[in-house]
């Protein structure tokens, strides 16, 4: 019953706030047709990413975990004409689908999808001088969340926003003894964030078509004295 209510409420707001269009619908359809897992962000979450990018005035965005490019499209639409989004995807099939979806949305002039393990791509991005990024969205394998967060700090500056998806894990985040590597990766991430004086952070629990989960949202403050307020 709870899931039915969550989905109905999500549909209510999505319908009234028009959180869809042909390019986004096509991205979802082509991803499903290609057999990609149905784990992309929900429409309201995609719009949140776009709004945060707009509020920040982002001109450079880094995404870790492309999947079919659905969240990529949402964020890329917030960029100015000379803006740039780099998205990292380990699976070549996913990257192929994402590139087609991004091109269909008319955003291939400002979006680059790079294929390979993110932990191989991130040092190359740092060496290229593409940073600092105004917004980093992390939505990849959860075991490596601590590593992705460490790189996000290196590739951002005070005023940048870092967002990490899927941090509640259906409530399993509070299981201290569980051996699930995804949960343990998120728990290590939370320990890092809690000890990191350069960010001010919170977590929003979410319910809806993606079940029970949540987002960590951080502002890079660059504070060196431990004051995160």
Considering the chains and any ligands shown, give keywords for the structure.
229 residues; Rossmann fold; single chain; alpha/beta
Give a quick rundown of the structure.
The protein is of the alpha/beta class and 229 residues long. Helices cover 43% and strands 18% of the residues.
How would you sum up this structure, described in words?
The protein has eight helices and seven strands, in the order αααβαβαβαβαβαββ. The termini are far apart. The protein has one domain: Rossmann fold, CATH 3.40.50.150. The protein is of the alpha/beta class and 229 residues long. It has helices at 2-17, 22-33, 43-56, 70-76, 92-104, 118-128, 145-154, 181-195; strands at residues 60-64, 84-89, 111-115, 135-138, 161-165, 199-206, 213-220. It has a seven-stranded mixed beta sheet, sandwiched between helices. Helix 2 packs antiparallel against helix 5.
For the sheet with most strands, the description reads:
7 strands, mixed
Question: What structural class should be given to the helix and strand makeup?
Answer: alpha/beta
Shape-level CATH architecture: 3-Layer(aba) Sandwich
User: Given the structure, what is the number of helices?
Assistant: 8
The general outline is: globular
Mean pLDDT: 94
Number of strands: 7
Q: What name is given to the CATH topology? A: Rossmann fold
Distance from first to last alpha carbon: 39 Å
- Share of helix among residues? 40-55%
| Beta-strand fraction estimate | 15-25%
Task: Summarize the helix and strand pattern as letters.
Answer: HHHEHEHEHEHEHEE
Strand order of the largest sheet: 3-2-1-4-5-7-6
Radius of gyration: 17 Å
What is the assigned CATH homologous superfamily?
Vaccinia Virus protein VP39
Number of domains: 1
Low-confidence stretches: 223-229
Which CATH class is shown?
Answer: Alpha Beta
């Amino acid at each position: 019953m709870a899931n039915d209510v969550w989905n109905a409420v999500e549909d209510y707001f999505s319908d009234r706030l028009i959180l869809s269009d042909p390019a986004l619908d096509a991205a979802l359809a082509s991803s499903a047709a290609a057999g990609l897992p149905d784990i992309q962000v929900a429409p309201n979450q995609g719009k949140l990413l776009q709004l945060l990018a707009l509020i920040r005035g982002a001109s450079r965005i880094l995404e870790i975990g492309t999947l079919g490019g659905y969240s990529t499209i949402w964020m890329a639409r917030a960029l100015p004409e000379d803006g740039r989004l780099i998205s990292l995807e380990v699976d070549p099939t996913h990257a192929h689908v994402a590139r087609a979806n991004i091109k269909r949305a008319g955003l291939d002039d400002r979006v680059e999808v790079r294929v390979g393990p993110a932990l191989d791509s991130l040092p190359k991005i740092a060496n290229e001088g593409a940073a600092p990024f105004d917004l980093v969205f992390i939505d990849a394998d959860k075991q490596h969340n601590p590593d992705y967060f460490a790189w996000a700090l290196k590739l951002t500056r005070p005023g940048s926003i870092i967002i990490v998806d899927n941090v509640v894990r259906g409530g399993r985040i509070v299981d201290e003894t569980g051996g699930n590597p995804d949960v343990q990766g998120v728990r290590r991430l939370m320990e890092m964030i809690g000890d990191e004086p350069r960010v001010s952070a919170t977590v929003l629990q979410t319910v809806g078509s993606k079940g029970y989960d949540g987002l960590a949202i951080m502002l890079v403050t660059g504070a060196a004295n431990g004051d995160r307020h």
